[in-house]
Every structure is written in structure tokens, then in C-alpha cells.
Amino acid sequence: MDVSSCENDDHVVEGVSKYGTTLKWFKVKFLGKGSFGVVHQVMPLENNNKVYAVKSCADEYSSSLRKEAEILKRFIFCHHVVQCSGDMLSVEHGRRVFNIFLEFAASGTLLDLIYNKKYGGKIPESDARCYARMVVKGLLEIHERGLTTDEF
Ligand SMILES: Nc1ncnc2c1ncn2[C@@H]1O[C@H](COP(=O)(O)OP(=O)(O)OP(=O)(O)O)[C@@H](O)[C@H]1O
User: Fold this and answer.
1) Does this complex have an ipTM over 0.85?
2) Whose CA is nearest to atom 18 of ligand 1?
3) What are the domain boundaries of the chain?
């Protein structure tokens, strides 16, 4: 797989999948950083109606992110688990980068939501009940598909 010809612009990235398909995407903004990578809101160049959250890390340190992608792909069509629609390799600043394409959650994580302007650190009980229900439904879907903590 040759990804060395990919574009090297700060905002436009070209990725290639393991099947050889290519996609160019535009980094709209930085969303955050976690233990395994950095996350950007992105838009495919040829489809401006789609928005994804792309989590990326250097390919040589991508084993955890690859595992995350493999686990998420088992939860396709689960409404309460963030959807992963694939992964691609790109080259940025001369380095191979592993990227996973996630369903974009406009409000970010539950923690982001708690501290946003709307809630200012405290979620009212009625809304908290709704979020708790969503978390429990997600957990149920995860258990139904047989994921155990041994696989992490
Ligand atoms: N699918 C998404 N949609 C929108 N924002 C996201 C999405 N995934 C991650 N983010 C943003 O990027 C940040 C980093 O996410 P990431 O999943 O890498 O780490 P985390 O889950 O917050 O922490 P850790 O990896 O340490 O458990 C999040 O805090 C969130 O603000």
C-alpha cells in the first residue's frame, strides 16, 4: 500500500484504505485529544454534506487505535454506540498516520456536555435521566454482542 503520494497540506488530507480506495478530507476543526489520538471534525472533499470525527495517531503507535476501530466495527447499526465507518492511512508531515472515521457527535462527550454553556457544570435531573438511559442502552448493546473487558 503506497500512501507516500498523499497530499501534505495542514487541512486537506488524502487517505487510502486497506482495499485501495482513496478519500480526501478537509479538517474543519480540532475537537480534542485522548489517550490514543487526536480528534478532528472533518468533511470529505467530494461530499460536503457529510461530517465525521476522525481520530488519528502516528501509524507506528496505532495498535490501541486499531483495536478501538476493530471493536467499534462490531457495533455497526447499534444506535447507542458511536459508529465507526472505516479506517484509512494518510501521510502528514512525512509521517504515516492511522485514522478512524467516527460518527460526529455534535455535543462531544457527556463530560463536554456537562461543562458546556447550556449546563455550566450541572445537568438537571430530567436530562440526566435521559443521558443515563442512553448509556445503559449502549451497555446493553455491547453486552448483547458479547464484548468483554478481556478484549480491551
Ligand atoms: N465522535 C466524536 N464526535 C465529536 N467529538 C468527539 C468524538 N470523539 C471524540 N471527540 C472529542 O475528542 C476528545 C478526545 O476523544 P478521545 O476519544 O480521543 O478521548 P477520550 O475518550 O476523551 O479520552 P480517553 O481516550 O483518554 O479515554 C473528546 O473528549 C471529545 O471532545
Assistant:
1) yes
2) 34
3) 1-105, 107-152
Annotated binding-site residue? 55: yes
36 within ligand 1 shell (Cβ under 6 A): yes
Rounded distance between C-alpha atoms, residue 86 and residue 18, angstroms? 10
Higher local confidence (pLDDT), 150 or 11 = 11
Query: Looking at the domain covering 1-105, what would its CATH class be?
Result: alpha beta
pLDDT in tens, 60-87: 999 999 999 999 999 999 999 999 999 9
Cβ of 72 less than 6 Å from ligand 1: no
| 84 exposure class (CB count in 10 Å sphere: 0-12, 13-18, 19+) | buried
pTM of the model: 0.89
Residue 22 sits at φ, ψ, to 5 deg, of -115, 155
Atom 16 of ligand 1 has which residue's CA nearest to it? 34
